């Protein structure tokens, strides 16, 4: 009864830690909801620029989706189209061919739900 059964064990090898070349801190995971400083900085660099006479281009450095919205007569925002936006990407967004001048805006929603959405200033076309 005093004898203990033999215990099995498993060794885990993390990539990059062999031979002292790596850092064991690589295996530490971030808490849920954490966003890296670099991702926050990339998201802050989202901009909108004109793209020819009938469009705009969203410049983003994080993946997500771009929504084109139009202000209605009731002063509400109506979503006209949704385009996927890739990391390090330039997403062209075509504006509708209306005869009257309308107010539009672009909303960029990052794929990472812990980053806040970006909303452009309203513009007329």
UniProtKB/TrEMBL annotation:
Annotated segments matching region Disordered: 1-98
Bias type Polar residues, positions: 78-89
Source species, domain of life: Bacteria
Listed Low complexity bias regions: 23-35
UniProt protein name: Uncharacterized protein
Native source species: Actinotalea ferrariae CF5-4
